[in-house]
Design brief:
About 40% of the residues lie in helices and about 20% in strands. It has about 350 residues and is an alpha/beta fold. It folds into two domains: about 120 residues, Ribosomal Protein S8, Chain: A, domain 1 (2-Layer Sandwich), CATH 3.30.1370.10; about 210 residues, P-loop containing nucleotide triphosphate hydrolases (Rossmann fold). The strands form three sheets. Strands 10-9-11-12-8-13 form a six-stranded parallel beta sheet. The longest helix is centred in the last third of the chain and has 21 residues. It starts with a strand and ends with a helix.
C-alpha cells in the first residue's frame, strides 16, 4: 500500500499485480467537498461517463471515489479526475463535454507503461475568446486547431457532429477579436434552391438564413449577441452565398465555406481563387453526404485530392470516433460507414 499526499487530494492505491491488465483498486480523496461534488457531476453522471468509456467501476462516498478495474483503465480514470479537478480549482466550469474530452486525452496518451508524465499535456489545445474558452475534445480537434493556426487554407472533412464548423467559427472569431482581420465572410452552397435564390422572400440575409443556420448558431454561441448584430449591420460579418462570390477578391478576412461537399468542381475552384492578401480560408464538409445530382463530382473531394501536399494548405480528417454531439451519434455514423464498406465489398467481383 502507498499513500501520496498533495495540496489537492490524497490517494490511496492498492495494486494486485504489475501487469497492465491486472485488477487495480484506487481511492481518491479530494480536499474541497464543493468542487468534488461538481467533479463527480449531478447524481454522479460524470463518474458514470468515465465508467462507460474506460471500463472502470467508480463508487462515490462524499468527497471520495473508489476506482476499480484494469490497471491501465484505473490509471487513465485517475488522470481524468485529476485534470478535471485542477480545472475546477482554477475556476473553470466542467461540462459532460469536458469530461469526454479529458477521457479522450487520457486514452490518446496511452497506457500506464507508455505514459510519460513529463511530456504529457494537461489538456488538448484551446481557443480563448472573450465570451468563453473553447477547448478541443478529441485528438482530431486538437490537430484541427493547430492546422488553423499554421495554415492559410484548411480543409476539415468528416461526419456531422465532430465540431468542424464550430471550431472554424471559433478560430474566425478569435482572429476578428484580435483585429488580425477586418471581417468574417460566411458562405454555403444552397443546393436545394439550385443556387438561384431570387425567388425566396426577403433580403439577401433572409434568403440564405436557412442554409447558414448552423454557422449563425455558432456565432451567437461564441460572441455576444449585440456584437454579432452590430457586426452584421456594419458588414464586418458578411453572408455571401456561394453563387455570388464570383469576381470578388477577399482581403483581410476569414472566409468559411461550410457544407463544401455540395460544391461542384468549378464552384470550388472559383471559391478557392477568391483568397486575397492577409486572408484565411476554412473549408468544411462531409464527403459521405453529397447532395449533388448523380454523376456530378464533389468539388470538396476533388480539391482535397488535387491539393494534397501543397504548401500552406492543411487538411484534417475527422472520423466517427471524433463525434461529440452524443454517444449514439458516433455509433450511428460508424454503422452507416460499415454498411457502405460492406456494399463496396459486395460489388467487387
Amino acid at each position: 500500500m502507498r499513500t501520496t499526499k498533495s495540496n489537492t487530494r490524497t490517494t490511496v492505491a492498492t495494486t494486485n499485480s504489475i501487469e497492465a491488465g491486472a485488477a487495480s483498486h484506487i481511492v481518491l480523496t479530494f480536499d474541497d467537498n464543493r468542487l468534488a461534488s461538481q467533479l463527480f457531476g449531478q447524481y454522479g453522471q460524470n463518474l458514470a461517463l468515465i465508467e462507460r468509456r474506460l471500463g472502470t467501476a467508480a463508487d462515490q462516498r462524499g468527497n471520495q471515489v473508489t476506482l476499480e478495474g484494469s490497471r491501465d483503465a484505473v490509471e487513465q480514470a485517475r488522470r481524468v479526475l485529476d485534470g478535471l479537478y485542477e480545472r475546477l480549482k482554477r475556476g473553470d466550469e466542467v461540462t459532460s463535454g469536458d469530461v469526454e474530452g479529458a477521457i479522450r486525452l487520457a486514452i490518446s496518451q496511452g497506457s500506464l507503461f507508455d505514459y510519460d508524465s513529463a511530456a504529457a499535456r494537461p489538456s488538448f489545445d484551446e481557443i480563448n475568446l472573450r465570451k468563453r474558452l473553447v477547448r478541443a475534445r478529441t485528438a482530431a480537434q486538437d490537430a484541427y486547431i493547430h492546422a488553423l493556426r499554421r495554415h492559410e487554407l484548411v480543409f476539415g472533412t468528416g461526419p456531422a457532429g465532430t465540431g468542424k464548423t464550430w471550431l472554424a467559427v471559433a478560430h474566425a472569431v478569435l482572429l476578428f477579436e484580435r483585429k488580425d482581420v477586418d471581417r468574417i465572410v460566411l458562405s454555403r452552397p444552397a443546393v436545394e434552391a439550385g443556387e438561384r435564390l431570387g425567388f425566396l422572400p426577403g433580403d439577401m440575409r433572409e434568403k440564405v438564413d436557412p442554409y447558414l443556420r448552423p454557422i449563425y448558431d455558432a456565432l451567437y454561441d461564441l460572441m455576444d449577441a449585440r456584437i454579432v448584430e452590430r457586426a452584421l449591420q456594419a458588414g464586418e460579418i458578411e453572408i455571401a452565398p456561394l453563387a455570388f462570390m464570383r469576381g470578388r477578391t477577399l482581403s483581410n478576412a476569414v472566409v468559411i465555406l461550410d457544407e463544401a461537399q455540395n460544391t461542384t468542381s468549378m464552384q470550388m475552384k472559383m471559391f478557392l481563387t477568391r483568397l486575397g492578401e492577409n486572408s484565411r480560408m476554412i473549408v468544411t464538409g462531409d464527403p459521405s453526404q453529397v447532395d449533388l445530382p448523380n454523376g456530378q463530382i464533389s468539388g470538396l473531394a476533388e480539391a482535397t485530392r488535387l491539393l494534397a501536399g501543397v504548401g500552406g494548405i492543411g487538411h484534417v480528417t475527422f472520423t466517427a470516433q471524433d463525434v461529440i454531439r452524443h454517444e449514439l451519434v458516433g455509433r450511428i455514423v460508424e454503422a452507416y460507414d460499415q454498411a457502405a464498406l460492406a456494399a463496396v465489398r459486395d460489388r467487387k467481383p
